[in-house]
Write a structure and sequence with these properties.
Blueprint lengths: L3 E2 L4 E3 L2 E5 L7 E7 L2 E11 L2 E6 L11 E8 L1 E3 L8 E2 L16 E3 L22 H4 L9 E6 L5 H11 L4 E9 L1 H13 L6 E7 L4 H20 L3 E7 L1 H14 L13 H9 L3 E2 L5 E9 L8 H9 L2 E6 L2 E2 L5 E2 L3 H7 L3 H23 L6 H16 L9 H15 L9 H7 L3 H5 L1
Parallel strand pairs: 9-13, 11-16, 11-17, 12-13, 12-14, 14-16
Antiparallel strand pairs: 1-7, 2-3, 3-6, 4-5, 4-7, 5-6, 8-10, 15-16, 17-18, 17-19
Length: 436
């Protein structure tokens, strides 16, 4: 029987403090006031002093209210009935469906022992050429999508959710606008992807503490499915809102701030979530793609800066496209060698020539005379942006590679590309193919 406490010592913002014994960090508590029951979570322990974040806010609470600890942390169902459902940050249904209380598991557990992990070597096909061809997403990889506010990062996540060849999509929204939530929900539903998806959505109007629970909810469910042999893709937006929620609570707790007011354990908080990405030997996997917006397009901002040390590259979304030069998938070489013989060749050649094209465009804008080579590069650049950088594409990798060869053949002679003779003989389109 859990002890009931009837004296709250302090109420500061949405955080209350009382003295209690045998309480664990992250444990849930129920606060009974004259306005009803409120759920809270332990966020700090200082000897016998216990600090709780009240989910619905502390308005209406008094120091004489009853506090009862539940003896467990936040839990979420791992039932197959989760698929196709939408919940808020504390696991309460948003879709008017029934609550699920079967196969409950704790959230926020430790990551998998590195010694038990296997080397990532399987590609996740997304149908997006800028990912599949140039920065291949690898199963069990953890990658951020660096962007600035206003870029179509939620549209990109929705397209990946619709097209990615995985078993389960788990989408978590942190501090999202209600319109964005409706867009994500409706897009997945209209394109038939909702049936294999689980959504945990925290909107900007919801309690701050729920924002912190969203990634843990998503990753706990992903781990349960991965252990059962499923390939789970976790899509999170936006981790900067998550960090801002950490900052808000740290300020309420009067913690000493670090860089730009963020708590000193920001790196550890981010790493604890990203490190859940794993490929289980003999089972499934967890792959993480998480949006990180950069205020002022500042990559040295604490959130993207710390994220870069944790993850294995990044997708850089700029001007509505994935930037081929700012993006990087450090694990792509693990799969590029087994996709098709010409994968590395096409990737390297097309990026090199596109970089040359940008130089020619700069010369053109400055009024320099264009050579024949410059003209070819300019033509090629237009084809590259149309056929490779368009995020609305849904093209199989092999077809995208063929499109790459076709674009090269339309603009250049074989010897101008710098590609080895054996590759040219094997893959260079015949004249009839190039004209088609």
């Amino acid at each position: 029987m859990r002890k009931v406490y009837n004296r709250i010592l302090q109420i500061a913002g949405n955080v209350i403090m009382l003295e209690a014994q045998n309480v664990a960090s992250g444990e849930l508590a129920m606060i009974n006031s004259r306005h009803g029951a409120s759920l809270a979570q332990v966020i700090r322990l200082d000897q016998d002093q216990v600090y709780l974040q009240v989910f619905a806010g502390s308005r209406g609470l008094s120091t004489g209210d009853e506090v009862r600890f539940l003896g467990h942390s936040m839990q979420v169902s791992s039932s197959p009935k989760l698929l196709g459902r939408i919940f808020n940050g504390s696991g309460v249904p948003r879709d008017n469906g029934p609550e699920l209380d079967e196969a409950l598991i704790d959230i926020g557990g430790p990551s998998v022992n590195p010694a038990k992990r296997i080397i990532p070597e399987n590609m996740i096909r997304t149908g997006i050429p800028m990912i599949d061809v140039f920065n291949t997403l690898v199963e069990s990889q953890k990658l951020p999508i660096f962007s600035i506010p206003g870029e179509p990062y939620n549209e990109l996540l929705a397209r990946i959710a619709m097209q990615a060849e995985v078993d389960v999509i788990i989408l978590g929204g942190m501090g999202v606008k209600y319109d964005d939530y409706l867009y994500l929900r409706d897009t997945l539903d209209e394109h038939g992807a909702l049936h294999k998806s689980v959504l945990f959505i925290h909107t900007a109007a919801d309690p701050v503490v729920e924002c912190l629970l969203v990634p843990d909810m998503c990753l706990a469910v992903a781990e349960a499915y991965a252990v059962e042999g499923k390939r789970a893709l976790v899509l999170l937006t936006d981790f900067t809102n998550f960090a801002d929620a950490l900052k808000e609570i740290a300020i309420t707790m009067e913690q000493i701030p670090s860089n730009r007011g963020y708590p000193g354990d920001l790196y550890s908080q981010l790493a604890a979530r990203y490190e859940k990405a794993v490929d289980f030997d003999g089972a499934g996997s967890i792959t993480i793609l998480a949006v990180t917006t950069m205020p002022g397009d500042d990559v040295t901002h604490p959130v993207p800066d710390n994220t870069g040390y944790i993850t294995e590259g990044q997708f850089y979304l700029k001007g509505g496209k994935i930037d081929p030069f700012g993006s990087l998938s450090r694990l792509k070489q693990n799969v590029n060698k087994v996709t098709r013989d010409d994968h590395r060749t096409i990737m390297d050649t097309m990026i090199r020539l596109y970089a040359d094209c940008l130089e020619s465009r700069e010369k053109q804008s400055m009024g320099f005379r264009m050579s024949t080579w410059d003209t070819k590069l300019l033509q090629y650049g237009d084809l590259f942006e149309t056929r490779m950088m368009d995020l609305s594409k849904n093209v199989a990798l092999e077809d995208a590679l063929d499109d790459g060869w076709a674009a090269l053949a339309e603009c250049f002679d074989p010897e101008e590309t710098g590609i080895k003779t054996d590759m040219l003989e094997k893959f260079w389109p015949k004249k009839s193919e190039a004209s088609n």
